[in-house]
Structure formats: C-alpha cells, structure tokens
Automatic annotation (TrEMBL):
EC number(s) reported in the record: 1.4.4.2
Sequence ranges assigned to domain Glycine dehydrogenase C-terminal in this UniProt record: 771-892
Needed cofactors: pyridoxal 5'-phosphate
Family recorded in the similarity comment: Belongs to the GcvP family.
Species name: Nocardia aurantia
Residue span of region Disordered: 444-466
Catalytic reaction list: N(6)-[(R)-lipoyl]-L-lysyl-[glycine-cleavage complex H protein] + glycine + H(+) = N(6)-[(R)-S(8)-aminomethyldihydrolipoyl]-L-lysyl-[glycine-cleavage complex H protein] + CO2
Name of the molecule in the record: Glycine dehydrogenase (decarboxylating)
Length: 951
C-alpha cells in the first residue's frame, strides 16, 4: 500500500515523534495542542473547520486530477497583449532553473556568503534592465508591472519634495490594469490623478509633481517622449515611463530621452503567461535617485580576503527600521522569475533579443500591410490597433473560432498583439478574419524573419536605437545549452537551499515544497493562459481558484477570500484598505488610527501608512505579550479615531498569547476592526481559526504555510481573508475602473496556485492538523535542547513555544564580543543556513524548524549550535581573542586554506568544526565574510565593467 503523502511531507516518523514528545514531556499530539493553544480559542475536536476539505489523495491521484483540470482549459493563441505576451522559455531554463529545487527552494539572500549564485543572477537582472532602459540603477525586481508603476508614482513624489503639488499626470494610453492600481494606491495617500493624451508631447494646464506614461502604449502606439519629458521638467515635474524591454532593443529607451524613472515587466523574457503571474516587474532610476528605490537592490562589495562579492545593499528590509516612514511595504520580490528573465537575456544575448524583436515587429508590420487604411497608428512595435466600424465583435468572434484570442477594445476597434510565439500562420489567419487580402513581398519576407531592407518598412521611432546593450560577458558567454547548463549549475552550487540543508528561519516557514506540488506549474494548460482570456477558456484554473478560496476560508474561519494579492505585503495592504473603506462607507472617515504592537513585523506599519492610516505603537510586556494596560490606554486616547489593530498570532515572539480573545473584544468594543497577520498560520491550521476567535481580516502567506516555495526571495502569494461585512471591499477585476485592485491580474500569481491546491488536497484535514502539531513539537524540542546553551527568550504560560523560538545571545555578546552575525556565519561552516537574525529582538536568533525536517536534521542543527557555544566558551576563556577566532573568521572558503595561516585556530577546525557527528556533505562557502559598509559606500548595482571581470 502506498504511504500517505502526509507521511512523506512530515519529517519525523512515529518513533522519532515519540522521542520528540518524550523530550518535551508530552504524551501525544492531542495533549500538546491543549498545552500550547489557549483553551478559549482551541477548536474542539470535530469543529476545526476542516470538515469541508476533501479526503487526502495520493500524489498520483492529485496529479491526475490537476491534469484533467489543465486539459479542460483552452490554450488558445493569445494575441491580446496589454503587457502579457506568450514567450518561448528555453528548455534548458525550464529544466535547470524553473524546475530545479536548488533554485526554487532557496530563501531570500540575507545571508550573502551562501547566496552568491542568486545574487550574481540578480545583478545580471539589474544590468539587463539598466542596459535596455538607458538608466543607471535598477532594483532586483518588483511584484508586477502595475505595482511597479505604483511604486514609481510614490518614488516621483518622494524625489520631488520641492514640488508642493499633490497631482500626478498620467497618459490615457496606459494599460487599464496599471491605471486601476495607480488609483487604488493614490487615493489613501491624497494623490490626485489627472489623465491626458501625452502622445503629442504637450501637457495640460496646472502643476504636477510627476508625469507617468508608457511606450508602447496600450493602443500599441510608439511615440517619442523627449518633448513631453522636457516639457515636464520645465514645469518642475519628474517623469516615469513604462518601457517594454523587448521593444527597447529597437527603440531609443526612455533613459536616453531624459526620463527620471523607468518601470515595467520582464514577463516576455521567457516567463510563462501563467494567467497573470508570477512575473518580475522592474523599476530603474538614474544614480541620483538610487537611494529612493523601494525593494531590494543587489550591490557589489568585497569579502574579508578582498575578493569581489555580492550582497543586498542600502534599503534591504528598510521597512523594519523605518516602519511607517518606509518608502514601501514590499518585503518580497520575484527573484525566481527575475532570474529566468536574466538568464533568457544571457542565453539569447543582444543579437538574439534584437532578432526576436525584429521578428515580432515584422509580424505586426505584415498585419498592418494587410489591414491598410484600418490601422489607427502609424508607429507601433508589436500591437496593431485596427478600426472596424461596428464590426469589432464579429472579427474577434471569428478569430476565436480559429483558436486565436484578439482584444476587443470597443465596438469599433480590435487590437492584435504579436509576440515571440506568433507565426506566419497566425498572421494569415487574423487577416482572413478581417477579410483582408494577404500581402506578399517585402512585408511577407519580414514575417518570415528576414528583415530585408529596413528602410523600406521602418516605422517612425522604431529601429532607431543606436546605443549598445548587454555587452558584459554575462550576456555574451552562455549562448549554447552546454554553457548555460554549466553556468546555472555553477551558480546554484554557491548557495544553500532546502535541497541541501534545513533552513531554520523563524517567521519564514521554510518547509518541503514537494515535487508533486511543483510539477503542474509548467504544464501549458496552466502556464500559457493569458490573464484576460475569455472565461470559457479557463474553467479548470477557475475551479482550482474557487476550491482554494473555499478551503482557505474554512481553514481560517473567514467568509470570503481573495487570491489577488501577489505577496504578503500586498495582502496586508488589501486587508487594511478593506477596513478603511468599511469605515468610510459608514460615515466614519475620522477613524484613521491603526494600533500596532512594538514587536510587529515592519511591513505592518508600512502597509498601514500606505493605506492612509496613522500608526500608534502599543507596548509589549517583558514576556513578549501585548501589554493590555497600554492597549486600553491607547484605545482611550484614540477612541473616536480607532480604525483597527494589527496583531500577529501566534505573536512575533513565537508564543500563543492567552489574552488574544480579550484583546480582540477591547478593540471591537471601541468600534475598531481586528487585523490578524497570518505570517504564523503554520501554528494554527487545524487548531484555531482567526476568523472565529476575533479577527475581521487576515492575510495568508501561501509561500509559508501552504508550500509555495520562496524561490530565492519570491514568488509569494498573500491572499486576503475577511468576515462577511468586509467582503464587498475585497479587490476586484483590475480591468474595471474603481475595482480597488492591488495587482495587475484578477487572481494575482494564478499559475502557482495549483501548488497550494495540491498540498491541501494531498494532506487532507488530518494531515494538515498533524503537520501543525509536528511543527510545534519540533520547535519545542529544539527549544529544550538549546535552552541550556542559548536561553529561550519567550515562552507561553505552560513554558512552551509555538512553532518557533527565540534564542537570546545578548548576554553572551556582552561577555565575549561574539555576535549573532558571528554565529550565523559560523553555521555556514557547519553546512547550515542561519536562523532569522535580530528579529523581532536585536541580538537574538529566531528558529523555526517546520514539520518537514526529520529528527536527524533537528539533532544535527542542535549539535551544531551546541558546538558553536563551546567555541564561544573558548573565546570567553581567552583561548582565542575576540577579534580572531573561528566565529569571527567565518565563513571559511577552500581558497583561504591555501597560503599563509596566521590564525590561532587550525585550518582543520576552520572548515571541519568539531562536535558534530552527523554525516553531512561539506558546504564550501564561495566567499568570506562580506564588508557591507564598503558596499554601501561604494555602491555598484550592475555587473562590474569588463576590465574588472577580466582581473
């Protein structure tokens, strides 16, 4: 008989679990639930909300079900456009990157010494974006194009503080989904949006802090933006331009036309359509605005031996420090997809990309030649807008019958977008649907990929780029499959991901991402669907979405769920917007105060500020719980203005607070709403439901609790769940004005939702509950083993922790000078990724083992930490000086063993630490400890020049 999937997902078997439970002095999982979860919120047996879930199925059964759902979708030829284009992902990237756990199970590169592969790939991404846009600095990806535009809007405002205007001018030719997200973001911030046709370069009357446009426009039109940008600058406004990166291989980029900011998406660089995501957006600026960039920025620095090394620079996780004054609430990015896009550019190189662009443009020109006088715009790149008075619906319907989806603009206009997957057959079929004659001659030759004489068919503003791009060796060396295969392997070998080791990160839940869950994401039935495809094309994926909405609502105790937010930060934001709009509709606009405990994740305060709320901090007690006396005082001080409280449960300190129900009641009695951050939901599934113990809204992290992998720092999915009274305020269809959409696609990163669907379907109710309790048991096991060496800072009333524990190193640091950074770097020599450092308490390590790690791995980690404590004792005893010991010298590379060795500890001890007896494959960090201050003082955020590379 096949073992249940839950037995494969959950690490400890029955004997190991018995050992763990014995060590924490608990008789069984049921007793553990009663010991750790407050009785007032613990769901009674049989009332855990999971009864609506289908029974657990095997991996092969679930793959068969998903295959049937994928098959029910229609993979039509998509010529809809609007920022989403079919693309041909090179198979070497599919197999060696998208489907490779060395890449998709990696964590955000906050430990740069064991993340050099990801960081180099992201530096390539930044270089690619800078080269193609003509800008100086790009960040390491955004969540999608619409949110990148929204971040560009707020960046313009921050960077132009000398301009007192609160008005933003946007082009009427923006993608409609971008416009909708801009309006969503602008309203709570008091930004007034004015729309105008900017194609002629003229601006309407009035003052503006910024101007935002895109090229090509939604209509396909390509316009030179130089005059418009100059006019804006003369009026004291800064300018952001959305730029299609494939088009920029042929068109003078906005950076060369004077734009201050560029934004957009890299989707068409090998990233599947995926019904809307995930895709890597981008944001780029000139050097003077580099420190205004939100999100992550990879920079070049040096390690302890003077070697070039990469790290996250400047504002990384800056919302933790600046909280409500942060430039953005973004805490994740789209790293895996950014790496795909960067490697797509490396594989094709400048000449290959230019050839693809010319083929795309050639097909569009062939269409235009056949449509003749029906073509609206003289200048275009890939999208042709055709005027068909009264006949648009008939043309679209006829194309649909031929298996091609066109875009119905209105009753009189049809837009046809060409892309990398467009063929001559598609062009001929579309022209036939219009009743047009098929042209032959030079235009026909272009469609076959032979440009011929460019002067005979050149469109205005197209094929006019003369500046070079992608000249760095990263984009010239890997054009064969052999070279690319080895490059990807060489990079992944520099990193520690879940395929090599436990990643014990508190608050981040790095658990198994099973192969059966991951397999469907590259199937064409899910991957090649346009987000605006006709609804009849996507019944299978809509079934996955509907199932997930229902299952997640039941698991959390809420009434409605939206899967649109494509990151946890966006789920937070959507939830707070729902609360704000609820108060506005009830005539309570004065309710604008958000209470947040001092221990909260920094994105909470940043999200509240973005939602137009004032943040008031509530103190925590010495045991980590929210101080209810201070909460009562804050409620009294802000009673008339109280909008909500944001809490994390279990708390950010890894403890089930026993007063949670009372806390919720206090806020409700004062007229406020309760937002429960779902970051720690891995300690609640099957045990307690926030929608039943007092929450009005929560966001969930599918990339934590529900097995979507972290991908080196993204993708993520952050659904928002609400009680019925807030359901009408959930984000809607981004193609509908006023829908309060928070991302560009209605269902966000839809193509990775089958991962979570498969996880829940294979686990079933019993498996989910057992996973939660095993995670809690494992965390308490590590807490018991490590407490004598590194005191556990917070525990609940019964001396137990939740699914994570905080190890306090502050006294050790005071006595010895050994810091959490030293311990984190030394763990790499032992083959482990470090726990979360200095969050939520500076000078501590937060450990979360998850349910997926078996007893041997738990013990190996505990043994490593205990051995490190013995090394710290040697420093305390004066055997090694505080400035030169195995911890301060960590991590140690193979290269550092060669040549002189003047340290008071041996080479052998440096790289093969003592005290760990579990056999583990040796991890050789590629660089020594990286100098962060040097990197910030000497900010380099794209590939070093070729000369430096040669050196």
């Amino acid at each position: 008989m096949t073992r249940p999937f839950a037995d494969r997902h959950i690490g400890p078997d029955a004997d190991a679990l018995a050992h763990i439970l014995g060590a924490i002095e608990v008789a069984g999982l049921a007793e553990l639930a009663g010991r750790v979860v407050p009785a007032g919120i613990l769901d009674p047996a049989g009332e855990d909300g999971l009864d609506v879930l289908p029974p657990a199925a095997s991996e092969h059964e679930v793959l068969a079900e998903l295959a049937a759902l994928a098959h029910s979708n229609t993979v039509a030829t998509s010529m809809i456009g609007l920022g989403y284009y079919d693309t041909l992902t090179p198979p070497v990237l599919v197999r060696s990157l998208l489907e490779n756990p060395a890449w998709y199970t990696a964590y955000t590169p906050y430990q740069p010494e064991i993340s050099q592969g990801r960081l180099e790939a992201l530096l390539n991404f930044q270089t690619m974006v800078c080269d193609l846009t003509g800008m100086a600095v790009a960040n390491a990806s955004m969540l999608d194009e619409a949110t990148a535009a929204a971040e560009a809007m707020t960046l313009l405002r921050r960077a132009n503080r000398g301009n007192a205007s609160h008005r933003l001018l946007i082009d009427t030719d923006l993608f409609p989904q971008t416009r909708t997200v801009l309006y969503t973001r602008a309203e709570p911030l008091g930004i007034e949006i004015v729309e105008a046709d900017l194609s002629a370069g003229e601006l309407p009357a009035g003052e503006f802090f910024g101007v935002l446009s895109q090229t090509p426009g939604a209509s396909g039109r390509v316009a030179d933006r130089t005059a418009m940008i100059a006019a804006a600058h003369e009026r004291g406004a800064l300018v952001a331009v959305g730029a299609d990166l494939l088009a920029m291989t042929l068109i003078v980029p906005p950076g060369e036309q004077g734009a201050d900011v560029c934004y957009g998406t890299t989707q068409r660089f090998g990233v599947p359509l995926g019904f809307g995501g995930p895709h890597a957006g981008y944001l780029a600026v000139h050097a003077k605005h580099a420190r205004q960039l939100p999100g992550r920025l990879v920079g070049v620095s040096v390690d302890a031996d003077g070697n070039t090394a990469y790290r996250l620079a400047l504002q990384t996780r800056e919302q933790h420090i600046r909280r409500e004054k942060a430039t953005s609430n973004i805490c994740t990015a789209q790293v895996l997809l950014a790496v795909v896009a960067a490697m797509y550019a490396s594989y094709h190189g400048a000449d290959g990309l230019r050839a693809i662009a010319r083929r795309v443009h050639g097909h569009a020109q062939w269409l235009a030649a056949g449509l003749g006088g029906a073509v609206v715009h003289e200048s275009f790149f890939d999208t042709v807008l055709a005027r068909v008075p009264g006949g648009a619906e008939a043309v679209v319907a006829k194309a649909k019958g031929r298996g091609i989806n066109l875009r119905l603009v209105d009753a009189d206009h049809v837009a046809i977008a060409c892309d990398e997957a467009t063929t001559d057959v598609h062009v001929v079929a579309v022209l036939d649907c219009f009743g047009a004659e098929i042209p032959v001659g030079p235009e026909g030759a272009v469609a076959h990929g032979h440009p011929g004489d460019p002067g005979s068919h050149r469109r205005p503003h197209v094929e006019n780029r003369t500046s070079p791009f992608l000249t760095h060796p990263a984009f010239t060396r890997y054009h064969t499959e052999t070279a690319m295969l080895r490059y990807l392997r060489r990079l992944s070998d520099k990193d520690i991901a879940l395929d090599r080791s436990m990643i014990p990160l508190g608050s981040c839940t790095m658990k198994l991402n099973a192969a059966a869950e991951m397999e469907p994401i590259t199937w064409p039935g899910f991957a090649r669907l346009h987000p605006y495809a006709p609804v009849e094309d996507v019944p299978g994926l809509l079934r996955v979405i509907a199932d997930l909405e229902g299952w997640l609502a039941a698991i959390t105790g809420y009434d409605r769920v939206s899967l649109q937010p494509n990151a946890g930060s966006q789920g937070e934001y959507a939830g707070l917007l729902a609360i704000r709009r609820y108060h506005l509709d009830r005539g309570a606009a004065h309710r604008d105060t958000c209470l947040i405990p001092s221990s909260a994740h920094g994105t909470n305060a940043a999200s509240a500020a973005m939602a137009g709320l004032r943040v008031e901090v509530v103190r925590c007690r010495d045991n980590g719980d929210v101080d209810l006396d201070d909460l009562r005082a804050k409620i009294a001080d802000h009673a008339d203005r109280l909008a909500c409280i944001m809490i994390t449960y279990p708390s950010t300190h890894g403890v089930y607070e026993h007063e949670i129900a009372e806390l919720c009641a206090l806020v409700h009695d004062a007229g406020g709403q309760v937002y429960v951050d779902g970051a720690n939901l891995n300690a609640l599934v099957g045990l307690a439901r926030p929608g039943r113990f007092g929450g009005d809204v929560s966001h969930l992290n599918l990339h934590k609790t529900f097995c979507i992998p972290h991908g080196g720092g993204g993708p993520g999915v952050g659904p928002v769940a609400v009680r019925e009274h807030l359901a009408r305020y959930l984000p809607g269809d981004p193609l509908q004005a006023g829908s309060h959409a928070v991302s560009a696609a209605e269902y966000g990163s839809a193509s990775i939702l089958p991962i979570t669907w498969a996880y829940i379907r294979m686990m079933g109710a019993d498996g989910l509950r057992r996973a939660t309790l095993t995670a809690i048991a494992s965390a308490n096991y590590l807490a018991r083993r490590l407490d004598p060496y590194f005191p556990v800072l917070y525990t609940g009333e019964n001396g137990m922790v939740a699914h994570e524990c905080i190890l306090d190193l502050r006294e050790l640091t005071k006595r010895t000078g050994v810091t959490v950074d030293d311990v984190a770097k030394r763990l790499a020599d032992y083959g482990f990724h470090a726990p979360t450092m200095s969050f939520p308490v500076a000078g501590t390590l937060m450990v979360e083992p998850t349910e997926s790690e078996d007893l041997a791995e738990l013990d190996a980690f505990a043994d490593a930490m205990i051995a490190i404590k013995a090394e710290i004792d040697q420093v305390a005893a004066g055997v090694w000086p505080a400035g030169d010991n195995p911890l301060r010298g960590a991590p140690h590379t193979a290269q550092c063993l060669v040549g002189e060795w003047d340290h008071p500890y041996s080479r052998e001890l440096a790289v093969y630490p003592q005290g760990v007896h579990h056999p583990r494959a040796k991890v050789w960090p590629p660089v020594r400890r990286i100098d962060g201050a040097y990197g910030d003082r000497n900010l380099v955020c794209s590939c070093p020049p070729i000369e430096a590379y040669a050196d």
